[in-house]
Amino acid sequence: MLSPSRPVPRVGSQARIAHFGGGFELGTVLAVHDEGRRLEVRGEAGELLEFVLNPATARFVSAGSGQGPRLELLGDQS
């Protein structure tokens, strides 16, 4: 059986939030909606952010604006 080529979003998964300008912070996925196409993530600073899967690029981008932070799901830490 083939496994996904990239991490699948799950509640509790770790992620890296890439802010405009080059800053990064770790985050945790709190909720997964729309079959994994919309995520709620809490960053290290405590801020709750929402990301959507961009169908053209297959990357998670800020739900509020294309100019906001990007999200990278991190693989299992086991």
What does this protein look like?
The chain is mainly β and 78 residues long. It has one domain (14-72). The chain has no helices and six strands. The protein has strands at 14-18, 24-33, 38-43, 48-54, 59-62, 70-73. It is globular. The model has no long low-confidence stretch (mean pLDDT 89).
Count the beta strands. Answer: 6
Instruction: Spell out the helices and strands N to C.
Output: EEEEEE
Number of H- or I-type helical stretches: 0
Trace the largest sheet across and list its strands: 1-2-3-4-5-6
- How many domains make up the coordinates? 1
Please outline the major beta sheet.
6 strands, antiparallel, barrel
Radius of gyration (CA) equals: 12 Å
Please tell me the overall pLDDT: 89
Low-confidence runs (pLDDT<50, min 5 residues)?
Answer: none
Helical fraction equals: under 10%
Sheet-strand content, in percent, reads over 45%
- Judged by helices, strands and strand pairing, the structural class is mainly beta
Instruction: State the end-to-end CA separation.
Output: 21 Å
Q: What's the overall geometry?
A: globular
What's this entry about, in short?
The chain is mainly beta and 78 residues long. 0% of the residues lie in helices and 46% in strands. Strands 1-2-3-4-5-6 form a 6-stranded antiparallel β-barrel.
